[in-house]
């Protein structure tokens, strides 16, 4: 018999519908589709109907009679949250660097002195598969508790073929076993390894000639990401790596204009990247170039918060017509958090976004940033039943009360996974 799940009596259902084909831009980001006193019916993991209580009760009486029932009275229902940018496979921690930064050292100074990404790379290279698997699984378990049901994860703490593959294999194994849907990104171009310090172009060659072919052949990644930054990969090197990835079927993503304005946003627009991430220092020209495309600006205010940097100009970016998503950037150095709801809160308080925009940014637009908008990111007939029930009376509470976990129930593919 088919498994039917019936969620009823929700104070509000935030559906974020109508943007599965194209991401929400400008005013579309703040025009949420809301059903008051709503119900959802799910059959075998797929959404069968979303609507007002009375309508669903009358139209689907037979289904309801055999359904598992969840009463969402006084609570709200949203699509499962989507985090489109994380670095979750790593070993070790960087709390000492945090203290150094509190004392005035910059993130890049620490990295140039062998800390930062290099420190996590050393720790991750030493860790065995099992340890990395268990540590990453624990992090994903916590993401789920905070309402996140789809997560992108990047490699990038290996920086040799063998070590990058180890990270990607951990991601692949978790994809098979973890309730969260995981989307894999290859990021061999996360830092210039110490062995190529004096000849970075040789590392670019190694990525292009040795790493990308194997990653693509083994189908271990869908996306190819580069840290385009002063002292890391130049725009020209980034372009070479991303163009090469495209030839292997890997869609480009860019860590763009995070610390210095290098033109990463323009590069993202030119090469048709699926997303341009960070953008703290993006120029007006870069923002306007992105506005002509459907490239998603993935903004990471947790990173600006934790690095005590200026926040990305989200208001300007949205008003210019760029589709914006939000993400944790979860990693041990620049954003050690697992809370996407806290990032939504920062979106409002530190980047001038409206609560409505942050919901769109953490659901359907985030799904677009990882090519999953056809299956997740909104609550509509035919989509995967990834659903969160929050114990709050209306959606404004999601960004109003901060640092709290309001998740009541998480449903993944029609099954209750957190209650
Ligand atoms: O997105 N900017 C580069 N990469 C990560 C940081 C990774 C780390 O510090 O370990 C980021 O902020
Ligand atoms: Fe990142």
**Biggest β-sheet: count, sense, barrel?**
8 strands, mixed
Q: Any idea how many domains? A: 2
The CATH architecture term of the largest domain is Alpha-Beta Barrel
What Rg is obtained from the alpha carbons, in whole angstroms?
21 Å
The CATH class designation of the largest domain is Alpha Beta
CATH superfamily of the largest domain: Metal-dependent hydrolases
For this structure, the CATH topology of the largest domain is TIM Barrel
Give a list of the ligands: N-(iminomethyl)-L-glutamic acid, fe (iii) ion
Name the poorly predicted regions.
none
Mean of pLDDT? 98
Number of helices: 17
Structural class: alpha/beta
Organism: Fervidibacillus halotolerans
Binding site for Fe(3+): 85, 87, 255, 329
GO molecular function, one term: imidazolonepropionase activity
Function: Catalyzes the hydrolytic cleavage of the carbon-nitrogen bond in imidazolone-5-propanoate to yield N-formimidoyl-L-glutamate. It is the third step in the universal histidine degradation pathway.
SSE map:
Blueprint lengths: L3 E11 L19 E10 L2 E7 H7 L1 H5 L2 E4 L4 E4 L1 E3 L11 H8 L4 H6 L4 H10 L2 H17 L2 E7 L6 H17 L3 E9 L10 H18 L5 E5 L7 H13 L3 E6 L7 H8 L3 E4 L5 H8 L4 E4 L1 H6 L7 H6 L4 E3 L13 H12 L3 H7 L2 H6 L17 E4 L6 H4 L6 E6 L2 E4 L1
Parallel strand pairs: 1-4, 1-5, 6-7, 7-8, 8-9, 9-10, 10-11, 11-12, 12-13
Antiparallel strand pairs: 1-2, 2-3, 5-14, 14-15, 15-16
The structure holds N-(iminomethyl)-L-glutamic acid and fe (iii) ion (FE).
The site of fe (iii) ion has 4 residues, from loops.
């Amino acid at each position: 018999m088919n498994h039917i799940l019936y969620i009823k009596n929700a104070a509000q259902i935030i559906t974020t519908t109508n943007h599965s084909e194209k991401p929400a831009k400008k005013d579309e980001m703040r025009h949420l589709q809301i059903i008051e006193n709503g119900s959802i019916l799910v059959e075998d993991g797929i959404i069968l109907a979303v609507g007002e209580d009375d309508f669903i009760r009358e139209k689907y009486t037979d289904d309801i009679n055999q359904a598992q029932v969840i009463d969402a009275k006084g609570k709200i229902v949203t699509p499962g949250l989507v985090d489109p940018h994380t670095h979750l496979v790593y070993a070790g921690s960087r709390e000492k660097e945090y203290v150094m930064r509190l004392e005035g050292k910059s993130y890049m100074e620490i990295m140039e002195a062998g800390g930062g990404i290099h420190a996590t790379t050393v720790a991750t290279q030493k860790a065995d598969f099992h340890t990395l698997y268990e540590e990453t699984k624990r992090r994903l378990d916590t993401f789920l508790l905070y309402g996140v049901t789809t997560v992108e994860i990047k490699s990038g703490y290996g920086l040799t073929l063998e070590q990058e593959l180890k990270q990607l294999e951990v991601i692949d194994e978790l994809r098979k076993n973890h309730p969260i849907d995981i989307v894999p990104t290859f990021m061999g171009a996360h830092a210039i390894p110490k062995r190529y310090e004096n000849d970075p172009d040789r590392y670019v060659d190694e990525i292009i000639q040795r790493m990308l072919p194997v990653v693509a052949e083994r189908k271990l990644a869908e996306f190819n990401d580069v840290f385009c930054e002063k002292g890391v990969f130049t725009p020209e090197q980034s372009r070479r790596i991303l163009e090469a990835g495209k030839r292997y079927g890997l869609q480009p993503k860019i860590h763009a204009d995070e610390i210095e304005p290098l033109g990463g946003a323009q590069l993202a627009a030119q090469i048709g990247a699926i997303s341009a991430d960070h953008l703290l220092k993006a120029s007006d020209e870069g923002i306007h170039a992105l506005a002509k495309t459907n490239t998603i600006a993935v903004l990471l205010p947790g990173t600006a918060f934790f690095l005590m940097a200026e926040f990305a100009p989200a208001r300007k970016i949205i008003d210019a017509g760029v589709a914006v998503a939000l993400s944790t950037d979860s990693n041990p150095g620049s954003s050690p958090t697992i809370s996407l709801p806290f990032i939504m809160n920062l979106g409002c308080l530190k980047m001038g976004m409206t609560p409505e925009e942050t919901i769109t940014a953490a659901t359907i637009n985030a799904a677009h940033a990882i090519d999953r908008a056809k299956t997740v990111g909104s609550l509509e007939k035919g989509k995967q039943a990834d659903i969160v029930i929050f114990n709050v009376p209306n959606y404004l509470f999601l960004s109003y009360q901060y640092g709290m976990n309001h998740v009541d129930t998480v449903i993944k593919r029609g099954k209750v996974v957190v209650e």
